[in-house]
Specification:
By secondary structure, this protein is mainly β. The protein has one helix at about 115; strands spanning about 1-5, 10-15, 25-35, 35-45, 50-60, 60-65, 70, 80-85, 90-95, 100-110, 130-140, 145-155. It has one domain: Jelly Rolls, CATH 2.60.120.
């Protein structure tokens, strides 16, 4: 589920119940332009940490981790938040919805624009604009699901 950005500054938040079993399963909050340009605040599985949360970027088809994975308790929901203020974004997580910890800040969201993506032939020219939403995938084929308790979007003045 996703929605188009309708303001230069906004906050989006969700609560996710998800128990990944391996690195092929992920769920979380996404800032999305197209398949080659997005940010993904994801709950995933790490061999050393187990269930963890991190921020990934795909910029012109090139993937990178933007934050180190942070372990979170298995069997518990995780709250995820993104705050976009004009051309910058920051992702946060919480285990109790009271204390928010930063994962990655000062992310350049101009990579999620028509102007940026039109420079790269792989990105293609778009007209949809940027979206914010929730996402879940299981590339293992085991059909692991995520339960999103809610998705809130609030414009900031």
């Amino acid at each position: 589920m996703s929605r188009r950005w309708q303001a230069f500054s906004f906050r989006a938040q969700t609560c996710v119940e998800f128990e990944p079993e391996d690195f092929l399963q992920a769920a979380g909050l996404v800032l999305y332009y197209n398949t080659t340009n997005f940010y993904y605040c994801t709950i995933m599985f790490d061999e050393k940490l187990g269930k963890c949360v991190s921020v990934l970027v795909c910029d012109a088809g090139k993937y990178a981790m933007k934050s180190q994975p942070v372990a979170v308790q298995a069997g518990k929901p995780v709250y995820l938040r993104v705050i976009v203020e004009r051309e910058k974004a920051g992702f946060y997580y919480s285990v109790n919805e009271l204390e928010w910890k930063p994962l990655c800040q000062e992310l350049d969201v101009t990579i999620l624009s028509d102007e940026y993506c039109s420079r790269d032939p792989l990105s293609g020219w778009g007209f949809t604009g940027a979206f914010v939403g929730v996402n879940c995938q299981d590339s293992s084929g085991r059909k692991r699901c995520a339960d999103f308790d809610y998705f809130d979007y609030e414009e900031i003045e």
